[in-house]
Each structure stands twice: as structure tokens, then as C-alpha cells.
Specification:
alpha/beta; Rossmann fold; 2 domains; 5-stranded parallel sheet; 13 helices
Length: 334
């Protein structure tokens, strides 16, 4: 919600506007040309607004394939599946070709492709402030409540890396509080240094002094943290399944692996620890790759998508008056 956004974004009160229910949102968006849901749970709200007025473009920015989040028989899974067709004239769009293709193939609905964003004001390569005496610093995100991120496999792998590759490595984890980690994996929680739950700026600080970012998720619809790591000069190891191909090229700026195999992930890290020249080459290419992405590029791609959709429906081309605030979003920050 808005409080979480305030913790993550210094300008949250300029960027986000809270609302209190459907009536309040209806009033706040009365003069808006586009209203976008960013989570499957709020698509129904945009649909109800559409039923009340027909002079705006209803849209859904699909962040992930959300039916994967739940057991097949769960009510949330059904709601997520239904969200793709919930608004008959709605525009669906996503930031990766993988996600566009998956939804199009499984649900027979078109999904427009827009550009991913990257905030270079926060995530950027600067002076690499290393105090690890030449050791390769490997960082992984551990989120026990998100099974598709394979938190236990990540923790087990980090522990193995620091044990078998010592003294040439240092490992760090972040993404959850220590007490949550102790409940989740009591035998391993104390073996890997855990930095806890971090803000965006704190994540950037950690990535800025890391060498390798490890993501062994079962899949990534996009994998934003890996791209942010690249912008900070960190070589990522990412899953083969999903949308990481938007930025990751195996052996050039990243290692793209089969994350069902712990051995494949361990060998990828071992290879980079043993071959510092290759590691540095990947890091340099990672920074160059990240430069292709920006908040402005993403915003323009979304605007062009909205304008084209508007024009295709015979409406006026969108304009953005200087005194107009951003269109309201009925979901979570992208």
C-alpha cells in the first residue's frame, strides 16, 4: 500500500495517490483517459469503473503469471485466470515477451509489449567500495514466503558456496528478517550472513559492493533485481525459464542456467570465482546492457501503447497537460 511505497520511495507522496474504495476512486479518476490495474486483485475494480463510464481506456499491466502463485484449485488462482478476460475491451500489457506469449497462448488474449524500466538514480555503477580482500562477494535474495523463488535452495547454495569455495568467497543474503529465516531454516539460518529486509537504496548499496548476484528462482517473469544488479556492476546468475532474456545473454553479461539443478548453479559461481577475467568481463557488459533501460524509455513505451490503442478505437490522441497528475493506479507500484 501507500505506507510501503513511502518506505521505498522518497517522493512517494508526489508519485502515488491513495483512495478509499470504489466511490473515491471513481471521483478521483473522473477526468482520466487511462486507468490501469497492476495486480489481478484490482482488475475487478477497474471493470466496475468501466461499467460506470465508457470514456476511458481500461488496462491491466500484467506483472507476472499470477496463477502460478497459488494451488490450482485455490480461489485466488481462479481470480487470477479470470482477470485476463475480466474487462471485455481492456488493454493488457507486460514488460517481457515471455509473459506476453504465455498469456496469449494459454488464454487467447493479445498482450502488448512495453519496455521495462530501471531507475539509474538509485541503481548505478560507482566506485566499487570493496573491503573483502580480493574475495568474490556473492549475494542472494531469500524470501521464505515466496516458494517460486526457491528460498531454501538459495540458502543451501549460499552455504555450500561459502563452505566449498572458501577462502575465495564471501556470501550475503537479504530479503527477510532473521527471525523469519530461523523459523524457515533453523539449521542454516545462522550460517549465512543475513542483511534482513532492505529498502531500494539499501539494496543498491549491497549490489554496489557485490560481484555476483544469485537468483535460482524456478522462473522469473522479468527478474528486476538481476537487472538492477547489472546496473550496479554485478554479474547475475539467473533462471533460464521466464523473461530474463530481455537483458541476460549467457556468457556475455550473465550466466543463464537451469535452476532445477543446484549443481548447475554451484558450477556457475565456481567458474566465476576461478576466472576473475571472465567475471570482470561479464560485469562490464552488464553495466552496458543496463544502460539500455530507463524510467523514461519505459514511460514513453507505455504512452505510445496507450495512444495507439486510443487511436485504434477512434478516439483522440492522448495529451498530457502540464498540470495533470499521473493517471491513477489501482494496484501496486510496477
Amino acid at each position: 500500500g501507500l505506507e510501503n511505497a513511502r518506505r521505498q520511495y522518497a517522493d512517494a507522496d508526489e508519485m502515488f495517490v491513495g483512495f478509499d474504495g470504489e466511490e473515491d476512486l471513481h471521483a478521483r479518476t473522473a477526468d482520466r483517459d487511462v486507468i490501469v490495474a497492476t495486480h489481478f486483485g484490482t482488475v475487478a475494480l477497474v471493470r466496475r469503473l468501466r461499467e460506470r463510464r465508457d470514456d476511458f481506456l481500461p488496462a491491466y499491466y500484467v506483472q507476472d503469471y499470477e496463477p502460478f502463485f497459488f494451488d490450482p484449485g485455490a480461489s485466488e488462482s481462479r481470480e487470477a485466470i479470470d482477470s485476463y478476460r475480466a474487462i471485455p475491451d481492456g488493454l493488457l500489457f507486460a514488460k517481457t515477451g515471455w509473459l506476453c506469449d504465455l498469456i496469449g497462448r494459454l488464454h487467447d488474449v493479445p498482450v502488448a509489449k512495453v519496455e521495462p524500466s530501471l531507475d539509474h538514480q538509485v541503481f548505478r555503477a560507482g566506485s566499487r567500495r570493496r573491503k573483502n580482500r580480493g574475495r568474490v562477494r556473492v549475494v542472494g535474495m531469500v524470501r521464505p514466503r515466496t516458494g517460486r523463488r526457491q528460498p531454501l535452495a538459495t540458502l543451501r547454495l549460499l552455504d555450500r558456496i561459502q563452505t566449498e569455495l572458501a577462502p575465495n568467497v564471501e556470501v550475503l543474503a537479504f530479503g527477510c528478517r532473521q527471525r523469519e529465516l530461523r523459523r524457515f531454516a533453523p539449521q542454516r539460518a545462522g550460517r549465512v550472513e543475513n542483511l534482513g529486509v532492505l529498502t531500494r537504496a539499501e539494496v543498491a548499496d549491497v549490489l554496489g559492493v557485490a560481484d555476483v548476484f544469485l537468483d535460482v528462482s524456478s522462473y522469473q517473469a522479468f527478474g528486476r533485481t538481476a537487472l538492477e544488479a547489472m546496473a550496479c556492476g554485478c554479474a547475475p546468475i539467473v533462471p533460464r525459464v521466464g523473461g530474463t532474456s530481455e537483458y541476460a545473454v549467457h556468457g556475455e553479461n550473465a550466466y543463464v542456467i537451469d535452476t532445477t539443478s543446484e549443481e548447475a548453479a554451484f558450477e556457475a559461481v565456481s567458474d566465476l570465482v576461478a576466472d576473475r577475467e571472465r567475471l570482470h568481463r561479464l560485469q562490464a557488459e552488464a553495466v552496458l546492457t543496463a544502460e539500455r533501460f530507463s524510467v523514461m524509455r519505459a514511460a514513453v513505451s507505455e504512452y505510445v501503447t496507450f495512444a495507439a490503442e486510443y487511436a485504434g478505437r477512434g478516439r483522440h490522441v492522448l495529451t498530457v497537460p502540464e498540470d495533470r497528475r499521473p493517471a491513477a493506479s489501482s494496484g501496486r507500484p510496477a
